[in-house]
Structures are given as C-alpha cells and as structure tokens.
Design a protein that fits this description.
Strand order of the largest sheet: 2-5-1-6-3-4
CATH class of the domain at 50-139: Alpha Beta
Number of helices: 4
Structural class: alpha/beta
Number of strands: 6
Helix content: 25-40%
CATH superfamily of the domain at 50-139: RbsD-like domain
CATH topology of the domain at 50-139: RbsD-like fold
Strand content: 15-25%
CATH architecture of the domain at 50-139: 3-Layer(aba) Sandwich
Largest sheet: 6 strands, mixed
Order of helices and strands: HEEHEHEHEE
Length: 139
C-alpha cells in the first residue's frame, strides 16, 4: 500500500526507471500521443473523457512525487495561454517555463530522453508541459 498521492502503477514504474534528465510529457487532449513522443517512451492514457483528467491535476501529483529541474511549454503565436499561470503555481517557485514554438516542442518531446508520456483529457489548447526530472541531493 502506498501513502503518497501518486498510486498509478504504470506511472510509478516509469518514474522508477527514470533518472536525472529524464523527461516526462503531460499532454492535452489534442496532442498526437502516438507520434508526438519518443517511440520507446512509456505511454499512459489517462484521457478517459474530455475534461477528465486535466493537465494541471496530473502536474499537481507529479510535482509532489518527483524533483523537477526544468519545464517547457508549447507557446502559440498569440498571447500566453492562461493555463501557463496554473503551471507556474504548481512548479517550484524559482523555475522558469521555457517557451518553445509548436514544432520545436514536438522535436523536444521526440527526444530519446523522453521516458514517459501521459495523455490527459485536458480540453484547453496549448496545455502541454514537458518536465525534466532533477536530482535529489544527499541529506
């Protein structure tokens, strides 16, 4: 039995295999899940229905479970999507969101360091976030 908030067995297994520098993609409902990530990355489908689960709900649980050293978002040509401020609230305070244009974001997600792609039912557009796992310093 687990005590933490993260109890999904496939996500736990993928994170258990991950290390410093491994990337985790939380993708919205419009993201090309089958082609938009490194081919051997673990894919976990949490997109039960539109709106279930949201990208921010998944980020909240992951941020409590792993050290995050970097985060990148897919930036549209227009104004910044409102979900970016929600992402910032859930990430470490000193972390800046790296803004990547759409095709640069896809290229980053197809990198061999992508270890986990989580498909959500997020309906907001540009609600994709690519996390880089950091280190846990010795105590």
């Amino acid at each position: 039995m687990l005590r933490g908030k993260l109890i999904h067995p496939e996500i736990l297994a993928a994170l258990g295999r991950a290390g410093h520098g491994t990337k985790v993609l939380i993708a919205d409902g419009n993201y090309p899940f089958s082609t938009g990530g490194y081919p051997s990355a673990k894919r976990v489908f949490l997109n039960l229905a539109p709106g279930v689960l949201s990208a921010t709900e998944v980020l909240r649980v992951l941020a409590a479970a792993i050290p995050i050293e970097a985060a990148a978002v897919m930036m549209p040509d227009g104004p910044e999507p409102s979900i970016f401020s929600e992402f910032r609230e859930l990430l470490p305070a000193d972390l800046q969101l790296e803004r990547l244009e759409r095709f640069a974001f896809y290229a980053a997600a197809r990198d061999e360091n992508l270890g986990l792609l989580i498909a959500t039912g997020e309906e907001r557009v540009y609600a994709n976030i690519l996390l880089t796992i950091g280190v846990i310093p010795p105590q």
